[in-house]
Amino acid sequence: MATLHHLTFVSSSFTFRPMSVRCDNERRALFSRIAPVYDNLNDLLSLGQHRIWKRMAVSWTEAKMGDRVLDLCCGSGDLSFLLSQKVGSDGKVIGLDFSREQLLIATSRQHSLSNKCFTNIEWIEGDALDLPFSDGWFDAVTVGYGLRNVVDKRKAIREILRVLKAGSRVSILDFNKSDESLTSSITPLVMAFLRNTDISRVQ
């Protein structure tokens, strides 16, 4: 199952910018490999519920028109596209991920969806442990299914708090460990799929 962490802390480009990234190379290679089927895996692991949870996570940020928001560990961009509609053409969405392949898919989706407001999204290949932004830069931050894959979670959270404006919100969506037999049995099957399947055959 998924856990939505609703946390309150007091404290127009179609291209992406590459940045240096410090991460576990094995994790980065895995996410690059599964990029073509990443969204299908989310459907499988969440039994299709992740789309509802993502809308909840975006709603809890309380992002509004004209805001500047960060979608950290953005993957193929689901949360970024939802945030884009919340902040409108006067706002700005930054989608940051360490996987170039995921960002290429996000960029392709941005083109194909042809929604005018999506021009307010910029994609950045970057490091969650060393965010390339000034202190207090964002009105809201989302992290969808990403925090568990960060090498140093405490440092990642410190970076999130650093770039948030005082009184702004971060909304973190992730899976927890489930005792339910159905979800517990799905996860090993997915991991076996990742180990043994040639991704090029299932596109």
TrEMBL record:
Biological processes, Gene Ontology terms: ketone biosynthetic process; methylation
Protein keywords: Methyltransferase, S-adenosyl-L-methionine, Transferase
Organism, as annotated: Abrus precatorius (Indian licorice)
InterPro entries given in the database record: SAM-dependent_MTases_sf, UbiE/COQ5_MeTrFase, UbiE/COQ5_MeTrFase_CS
Protein name: 2-phytyl-1,4-beta-naphthoquinone methyltransferase, chloroplastic isoform X2
NCBIfam families listed in its UniProt record: MenG_MenH_UbiE (TIGR01934)
GO MF term set: methyltransferase activity
Gene3D superfamilies xrefs: Vaccinia Virus protein VP39
Gene expressing this chain: LOC113869602
SUPFAM superfamilies noted in UniProt: S-adenosyl-L-methionine-dependent methyltransferases
